[in-house]
Amino acid sequence: MLVSILHRITGGALYVGTLLLAAWLLAAAGPERHFDTVNGIFGSWFGRLVLFGYSWALVNHMLGGIRHLFWDTGGGLEKHTASRLAWAQLGASIVLTILVWIVGYMARGT
Question: Out of 1.20.1300.10, 3.40.50.1820, 3.40.50.12160, 3.30.420.40, which CATH number does the structure's domain 2-108 have?
Answer without folding.
Answer: 1.20.1300.10
